[in-house]
Amino acid sequence: MPECGLTVQKRPYIVNEAKHHISRNKTLMQVILHIGVHCTDEDRLIGSLMRNEKLLEQNGTAVPNPNSYRNLLRETLFHMAKSAPKPDAREIFLNDVLGGIDCERLILSNENFICQPQRIFENGQFYRLAPRRLSSMQQLMQGDELEVYMAVRNPATFLSAAFGKVEGRSFHDFIDGMNPLSLRWSDVLWRMRAAVPKMPITVWCNEDTPLIWSHLIRDISGLEHGTKLKGGFAVLREIMSDEGMLRFRDYLHKNPPQTEVHQRRVIAAFLDKYALEDEIEEELALPGLTEQHYIEMTEAYEEDLYEIEKIPGVTLITP
Predict the structure, then answer these.
(1) Which H helix or E strand runs over 134?
(2) Which domain holds residue 130?
């Protein structure tokens, strides 16, 4: 099967110390799990949330430093695959993560929550471990209100980006028997829902992130829409020229958008004129995949989004 190089257009897309300490009988909380996925966020979300730490503190939301929980959580979930957690496992975990700080809402973010990149297609199944990881997390944080947030990405670009994170393996070994043309995010989400049917899941397209970034930050933080944020255009800045950003901010200053939908339309208009081509296009060239394959994967992705919207308990954020 011939290989090809194809250029594709991407779709336009902590708290300070509180007064109270965690006790053995700590009030149950909302726990937000931002689980990536790989090659979508690159820790931008956690960075933007930390820029707004004082605002979040005032609203009872904690965004701990990822270094305080990523390794700890991975090891905890690994051991839970072999045995049930101890009765005080939740309290021990929270004390280690929060250091005694009290909160009503806890946000944890890790693109490797489900697995490391080399295991994405383990045994020929797309994110095979996702249901197990969420089920274990629900067991660990028993009684808390858990919610999942994750981005999805066009398989045509996701495959290339994910394979780029894996060293010392061929593409054939990486996909482990998975047919790239059969890759569907809805399959992963249906399996997740079956494992944790009461856990709400919010999904968005990575390609749309610049348009909805401020909305995502507010939604994940539990803030009212319209709340002013720092870094609300951080992702947009990465793909728009300096001139475009200056003109964009000047336009918003003179013409404040009345709704988020209006703001997204303004962003789309400025991206159409000032987007950085090197940032919104990428070369695709994977062994065994032709230009027609990439086209078919992109079309299937668009159809899969309609399937995702039908899944009970799953909310798809769109521009």
Answers:
(1) helix 130-140
(2) 6-240+275-317
pLDDT surpasses 50 at 25: no
Q: In the structure, what pLDDT confidence band is assigned to residue 87 with cuts at 50, 70 and 90?
A: confident
Q: Is the pLDDT of residue 133 over 60?
A: yes
Burial tier of 168 (Cβ tally within 10 Å: 0-12, 13-18, 19+):
exposed
For the chain, how far is it from start to end, CA to CA, in angstroms? 37
**φ, ψ dihedrals at 275, nearest 5°:** -65, 145
CATH number at residue 28: 3.40.50
Tell me if 316 sits within 8 A of 186, measured CB to CB.
Answer: no
Specify burial of residue 220 (Cβ count, 10 A radius: 0-12, 13-18, 19+): buried
Tell which residue, 198, 229, 171, has the closest CA to residue 312: 198
Q: Could you tell me where the beta strands, DSSP code E, fall in the chain?
A: 6-9, 30-34, 61-62, 105-109, 145-152, 201-205, 281-284, 314-317
Q: What is the DSSP letter of 69?
A: T
Residue 172 · residue 121 · CB < 8 Å: no
Mean pLDDT across the chain, nearest whole number? 88
Number of domains present in the structure of the chain: 1
Residue 247 within any structural domain of the chain: no
Q: What is the DSSP string of 241-306?
A: -HHHHHHHHHHHHHS--SSHHHHHHHHHHHHHHHB-HHHHEEEE--TT--HHHHHHHHHHHHHHHH
With tokens 């086209």, the residue in question is 295
